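User: Please fill in residues for this 208-position structure.
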C-alpha cells in the first residue's frame, strides 16, 4: 500500500497520512464491553520493566533512535513511556508498536489519513462511538496509543495470534502483504531490541 520511498519521505510530508483504514465490524456486547474497559484505563503510564537499569537502557536506546523525528527530549520520553505502557498492558511488543507508528504516521501526532484516521496510530473515529466516550480525543497522545494498542490486540485475538492477518485488519488491507511487511521491516530494522540477560535471571532459571 505504501512504498518504501514514500515512507522515507513521511517526516517532511504534509500532516496527512495514507495508512489507517480499519473497517467497522459488528461485535458482541461482551467484546464491546471488554474493549471499552481497556480504553478507559486511567493509570499513569510507566515503563513496565522490572529492572531499573534495564528501564534506563531501553529508554535511552529508543530515545536515541527517535531523536531525529522528535527533537524534544522530554516529549520523546513521554511518548516512549506511553508506548511501552500501552503496548505491554495490551500484550504487545513495544518495539512492534513503534514500527507500526513509523509506518502509520511517521510519528506525527496530528497526522490524518485520506480515510480520516487520526494521530500516531491512525485510529478511525468510529472507534470512539463503538468502544469509547464522546469526549475522547484521538489526537491526545495517551488516548491515541491506548485505542491503537487495544484495537491491534482485538484483531490479534480475532486472528488467533496471527500477526500478519491482524496487521492487515488494522490497516484495512486484510490478505495483502504490503502493509504487514512494511510494519515488520520497520520493527526489525529500526526498533529491534535485545534486553540484557541479568545474573538474577540466570539464577532464577537454574533454580527452576
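Assistant: Residues filled in for all 208 positions:
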Amino acid at each position: 500500500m505504501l512504498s518504501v520511498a514514500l515512507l522515507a519521505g513521511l517526516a517532511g510530508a504534509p500532516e496527512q497520512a495514507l495508512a489507517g483504514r480499519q473497517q467497522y465490524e459488528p461485535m458482541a456486547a461482551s467484546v464491546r464491553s471488554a474493549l471499552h474497559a481497556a480504553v478507559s484505563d486511567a493509570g499513569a503510564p510507566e515503563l513496565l520493566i522490572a529492572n531499573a537499569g534495564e528501564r534506563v537502557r531501553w529508554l535511552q536506546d529508543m530515545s536515541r533512535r527517535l531523536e531525529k523525528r522528535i527533537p524534544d527530549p522530554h516529549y520523546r520520553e513521554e511518548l516512549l513511556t506511553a508506548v511501552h505502557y500501552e503496548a505491554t498492558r495490551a500484550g504487545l511488543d513495544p518495539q512492534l508498536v513503534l514500527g507500526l507508528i513509523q509506518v502509520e504516521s511517521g510519528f506525527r501526532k496530528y497526522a490524518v489519513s485520506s480515510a480520516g484516521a487520526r494521530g500516531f496510530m491512525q485510529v478511525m473515529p468510529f472507534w470512539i462511538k463503538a468502544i469509547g466516550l464522546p469526549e475522547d480525543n484521538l489526537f491526545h497522545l495517551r488516548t491515541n496509543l491506548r485505542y491503537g494498542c487495544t484495537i491491534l490486540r482485538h484483531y490479534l485475538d480475532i486472528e488467533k495470534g496471527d500477526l500478519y492477518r491482524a496487521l492487515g485488519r488494522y490497516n484495512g488491507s486484510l490478505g495483502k502483504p504490503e502493509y504487514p511487511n512494511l510494519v515488520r521491516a520497520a520493527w526489525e530494522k529500526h526498533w529491534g531490541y535485545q534486553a540484557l540477560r541479568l545474573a538474577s535471571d540466570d539464577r532464577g532459571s537454574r533454580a527452576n
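For context: The first strand starts at residue 16 and ends at 17.
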